[in-house]
Amino acid sequence: MRFSFYTAIVVILLSSCNRSEHNADNNLKFFRYNQSSGIASLDPAFSKDQSADWACYQLYNSLVQLNSQLIIIPCIAKSWEISNDGLIYTFHLRNDVRFHNDPCFSQGKGRMLVASDVVYSFSRIINPKTASPGAWIFNKDVDHDAPFTALNDSTFQLKLQRPFGPMLGILSMQYCSVIPHEAVEKYGNEFRAHPVGTGPFMFKRWLEGIAMILVKNPNYFEHDGALQLPLIDGIKVSFIDSKKTEFLSFKQKQLDFISGIDASYIDEVLDDKGNLKSELQGQFNLEKVPYLNIEYLGFLMKPGNEKENPLLIKNIRQAINYGFDRREMIQYLRRGVGRPAESGFTPYGLPSYDANAVKGYSYNPAKAKELLKEAGYENGDGLPEMKLYTNETYKEFGLYISKQLERIGLNVKVEISQPGILREWMSQSKVNLFRGSWLADYPDAENYFAFFYSKNGSPPNYTRFNNSHFDSLYEKALAENDDVKRYSLYHQMEQIIIEEAPVVPLYYDEVLRFSQKNIEGLQPNALNLLDLKRVKIK
Description:
Helices cover 28% and strands 21% of the residues. By secondary structure, it is of the alpha+beta class.
């Protein structure tokens, strides 16, 4: 009886979803996507991965938001000022933002959002009792005594203990979504499955592991010209755990959108240049979108004996940077997905990225051999075997690089380790050469430069890089709120990293986003956020 009852609920839920999506009588338009990894929580204080971010982005709003170029624009806050010393951020809130209708409010009607709601939401993140994985976004930087203040219903103030230029980017994260205290007080731990926000869509139903339904918020405050957002009636999320099955469902038009596909389908879908094969172009759309992830090789820069560890010699590190063909590597090992990292460590897709201002390494075996000669190891003679540690997923990359470096006289052996063990060894300075990746949490290059700041431990400073000039520029950039000036400092820092070569940037990542031909207004961005406010279904 229990199984039959559960099955009946699932059937009713899914069939009602399908009627809503395709019923010609009511003409409702539901956007369908899949979340193969599942969703752990709809409480934004626990939005620690992409699956939760995508859902929370539909349900909540933050003070600020990002456009498709990752530029910070107003959201709940219509404007803001930053004090001259960079310590006080004053936000002026809109007066037309309402929480979703919900039984937690008087008569079930959502009330107006006020500045004290922002205070409550942010304070909840850093409250140890909440145990939010997002507490780090504030703990190091906000004032200890009075970090968050509501000056009145429409004015919120954030106070820092030291300047931090990227703070506005932090405030765009889903952790900083504004929620009502009434909902948390009413639902307690069940708030994770009964969310109440101000976002473009409202929570309807969720059978965990089966399906989730969100419906249009009729009181949403944002407009696109004369049109009130959102432009569709709702969202259906399925939870097919197989990426192979997900892609087949997409091909059968049971899903409107997918991000990424199983590796086994890459050759079937992409041509030699990484574009959608011609015979598929009439069936669905593909966008290759920058993704704020850098893949790299790292050198341990901890002082030591250069004879025992020749990687401490700058010329040898530079020679490795010049000694293999990134472009060929992307073409053959990534099927054209990604860009060769020839402009330093911070990836394209960031607002500060400028390939003209930052010149990195490209394939130049003659230059590599010259550098080895200058280091006293012409043609690699006298150099000991070097070990490159990576995991099984990136074995082919290691072997490719090893084979190419062999041509300039370097003997590099690829060692395969478990990912968790390798990270532990990197943290404990037990490996001299290792493969790693770095994914941004927020859209500011400070994410990446923190990797080289000498006062940071490991993680993130796995290389133990220590350069006083770099550190002074990093600290100056933190205190700079003018984007143009901060980006200029970033470019100077990037050139130091290129010159000193504590890392070998491999490629800037990209993500494949597939959508059906009848989907319009799906705007990509380098954080791979799913923004459905302006989507239309023809």
